[in-house]
Structure formats: C-alpha cells, structure tokens
C-alpha cells in the first residue's frame, strides 16, 4: 500500500529537525511495531514493514509518502489520520490537510524499470570486530548487500518463498551523495548514501514490491524509498 499525506506547514517552514527519527516514532506509536517488537523476522533479523520519503515542502504543505506491503499497517495509519487528523512529530503537531491511497506505479510485467529516490539509498557493510562502512555503487559489494536486504524483507514479511527470490540488477542513471542526520535520545548518527535515478532489472514478483519496501539499509527509518517513474518495455530504444 502506498499513501501520500499532506500536512499544513508552520510559518512557511522548509525543514523539520530530525524528521526521520520523529516520523519513524510516529509510525511506531500507531502500529505498536518497533525494534524487536515485530511479528516479522528473517535469519534472526527484525523486519519493520514500512518505508517513507523525505518531507517535500510545497507552498504551505508538507508532502510525505509512506509505503508498506502489509495492508493492515496501511489501514492503521489511515484510520489514525482520519480520526485524529494530527501527526505528532516530537513536540510539534501538524494538521492533516489531505491523505490519498496511491496506485502502485509498476505495470505488472516489465522486467526493467526506472526509479527515482524519494529518500536516499544507504548501504552499510559491517566487518566483524571492525567498524561499519557505508558503501557506494562503485563498490562490488553494493549490489550484493542491496539484494540481501530485499530478500530479507520479502521472506521475513512472508511475501515470497525461500526459493522464489531472484536478485535485481541496478545501474545508476543520475546520482549524487547524500547525508542524513538521525538523532535518537542523545545518540547522533549520520548516514551516507545516494539520491537520484536508477535503472533496475528484475523479475515482476520482486519489482512490484520495491515501492512498498524500499531499497538498502534503514527503510523503516525513512531511507531508500523509491518511486517508479518509467516501466521499460522489452525492445524500448531508451532502455539501458
């Protein structure tokens, strides 16, 4: 399920401090899902079943997109917004101006798509007994880790079976480095990734879920949400 909400901005604001953390907390408070308190797991890893975009400021409105493959989660969000008409982000309250259930942009059959990032794609690699590293597309592990994350989510959410996952291939069309600030209590973290447009090749039963689950690390923190902007038909001269 894909949802777009528009909030009324306060005093012509163009920024929400620590937005990723605040909106993640808002979704957790509605659904009751956070950390290890989730019914979804894969190989000992907890799966949080949503992703969301950066906030986009348009005149006096703030647009936020939410993706989840679990319909019950989407319905809980919609019900809360309809009843409360308020989004609580930290100490600030924002009135809901509009909410819309969006159509999935995947056509159901294409094996090649062009996507744009709605929040930066972050890929982490942790070496045992060493630090965690942020990887970029020029690293040979970048695609492998992306596929491992997608597989974990699809299997952990019981969307596909163990033998049904087929890895995707990713080629960069346009990208730029992107840094995200994330503060939880007194701990400040910085995440480094990319924003832009990507060509993705894969099987329909995998591609159709990418808008709802996201790509890369930290999807439930508002990282890695993508939107399909073109379904590329076989033989299209503009395809990669």
* Number of strand segments: 14
What form results from the Cα inertia axes? globular
Low-pLDDT runs? none
Overall CATH class of the largest domain: Alpha Beta
Q: What would you call the structural class?
A: alpha+beta
How big a fraction of the residues is strand? Answer: 35-45%
- Characterize the largest beta sheet: strand count, sense, and whether it forms a barrel: 6 strands, antiparallel
Mean pLDDT: 92
- Count of helices? 5
> What's the gyration radius in Å?
18 Å
Query: Level of helix content?
Result: 10-25%
Gist?
With 240 residues, the protein is α+β, with helices and mostly antiparallel strands. It is built from five helices and 14 strands.
Overview of this protein structure:
The protein is of the alpha+beta class. It folds into 2 domains: 2-102, Alpha-Beta Plaits (2-Layer Sandwich); 112-232, Alpha-Beta Plaits (2-Layer Sandwich), CATH 3.30.70.1900. 21% of the residues lie in helices and 38% in strands. The protein has 5 helices and 14 strands. The strands form 3 sheets. Strands 1, 4, 5, 6, 7 and 8 form a 6-stranded antiparallel beta sheet that branches. A hairpin with a 2-residue loop joins strand 2 and strand 3 (45-46). The mean pLDDT is 92.
